[in-house]
Structure formats: C-alpha cells, structure tokens
Amino acid sequence: MAGDTLTSSGYIKHHLTNLTFGQHPDGTWGMAHGAAEAKAMGFWAIHVDTMFWSIILGVAFLFMFKKAADQVTTGVPSMLQNFCEWIVEFIDTSVRGSFTAQNNLVAPLALTIFVWIFLQNLMDLVPVDLIPYASALIGIEYMKVVPSTDPNATFGMAIGVFALVIYYSIKMKGLGGFAAELTLQPFSSSNKAVNLLFIPINFVLEFVSLIAKPISLALRLFGNMYAGEMIFILIAIMYNAGVVLGLFGGVLQLGWAIFHILIITLQAFIFMTLTIVYLDMAHHEH
After folding, report:
1. Nearest residue to 38 via CA among 51, 27, 52, 22
2. Residues 121 and 225: beta-carbon distance below 8 Å
3. Edge-to-edge strands of the sheet including 46-47?
4. Residue of 54, 169, 202, 224 marked catalytic
5. Which of 152, 195, 220, 240 is catalytic?
6. Residue 175 pLDDT greater than 70, yes or no
7. 6-15, 79-88, 186-195 — most confident range
8. What is the pLDDT at residue 42?
9. Catalytic site residue 224?
10. Which pLDDT tens digit goes with each residue over 99-108?
C-alpha cells in the first residue's frame, strides 16, 4: 500500500515510472531498474507496460464486438448487442455530422479510436496500488496500467491519424494541390511578384497549423489523463496519513472517480471528433 516502504515522493515517482526495456550504457539489453536507467536508454527504449495494456485492451475491444456480431439477432437482443449497437449508432451519427465526403474508412476508424482510447482511459479507475502490487509479487518492479498517460502512446496514435491526413490530402488534391494549400493561403495577391513574396510566409503559417494537429491531439489526451492519474495517486497517499485523512481520502477518491468517468469519455470523444474533422478537411480543397 501507499507509503509502507516509500516516502510520498518516492511513491509518486514509482507509480509514474514505466516498465522499460532497452539498451543499457554498457551495451547489454534488459529492463530498467528505475527512472534514471530508463532515461539513459534513450529514444529506442520500449515501455513494455504501455505496449502490453494497449494490446490487451485492443484485443478486448475486438473480442467484444466480434462476439456481439456472432450473436446478433433480429429478435430480443442481448445486453452486449444493445451496447455495441448503441456505440455504433453513436459513432455513425458523429461521422455523418462531421464528415461530408465519401470514405468507408472513416467510420470504422472513428469507432476504433473511440472505444480503444476509452478502454485505455478506463484503466485509470482501477485502484492505483492493485495491479502494481500484484505485479510486484511476481517480480515486476514497475507497472503503469493507463496507456494514455504515456506520451509515447498518445503521440503514436496522433501520428497515425496525421499520416492518414497527409495521405488523403495528397490523394484527393494531388501533390500540387496540397503544396498550393500550404503556400498560397491565407495571403494572396493578383500581382505575381507579391504572391511569390507571400509563399514563404504562407508556408510557415500553414506548416505550423498542420503540425499543430497531431501535437494537440497527443498532448490534450496525455495531459488530461496524466493529471487524473496524479490526483488518484495523491489521494492514495492520504490512506497512510491517519484514520481521519484516510476516510477523507476515500470520499475524495469516490467523488473523483465519478467525475473522472466524464473525463475519460470526453477525451475519447474529442480525439475521435478531431480525427473526423481533420480527415474531412483533408478531403476538401480550400
């Protein structure tokens, strides 16, 4: 439990450290034993816990919807079928309202993004000591269970969306049309000489706007979920500060967990909606 063998700062640092695999300074490969070793491993280190929980939750999503599809009936639907149909209808309504072009990829992509991110965020409601304590019993020193609190995961998803935006921008408008969007707006002139002067200015402005899309997607999700996880950790510390603070911490944890349900749903919805909007922009010429 919180604070049994660690100071408050040590407890927080422990819970915010990923299980990291990479190359040690001496050239050997293995798990990092602390944040300092993980940092020394550099860019190519792998956060094993983030990868593990992301894949597990992705498989859970596929299994749940595959099971609902296999058991679908036109009679009295099961609770699982009702739940999956409600999510699909919700996603379909969102796509129809925000995406005006024709692309059969967008709705399945939006469904995947929403459910997958929601499941990742939902792990934040698991008691902060439960899985790390169970992992310690089998010799795993660190275990972060909320993938969306790892910027590597959020940036990975955002870069995937960004790659699709670039792909469809070039596919729908051509390389020349896409280049024109980056260089011929927002400033333009009927005078060709003046227009040439505007090109580098336009490119800087539009390039910043373009790059801001994946960065904002990743940082918004990471920042909100990281803050939520930090609050749960701080509340957990209160359990070792006496009976009164422990009871108060329990009330705080319940209240924050109820409020956090809204946050985890909203963050998944925002990521999905912005993905739809960005892809819609990629399908239309300005």
Report:
1. 22
2. yes
3. 29-31, 20-23, 46-47
4. 224
5. 220
6. yes
7. 79-88
8. 87
9. yes
10. 998 999 999 9
Q: How far apart are CA 250 and CA 244, in angstroms?
A: 10
User: What confidence category does residue 5 fall into, taking pLDDT thresholds of 50, 70 and 90?
Assistant: low
Residue type, 53: W
Average pLDDT for residues 124-135, to the nearest whole number? 92
> Pick the catalytic residue: 188, 191, 209, 216?
216
Rounded mean pLDDT of 109-135? 94
Non-local CB neighbours of 151 within 8 Å, separated by 6+ positions: 218, 219, 222
Rg over CA atoms, the chain = 23
- Does the annotation count 152 as an active-site position? no
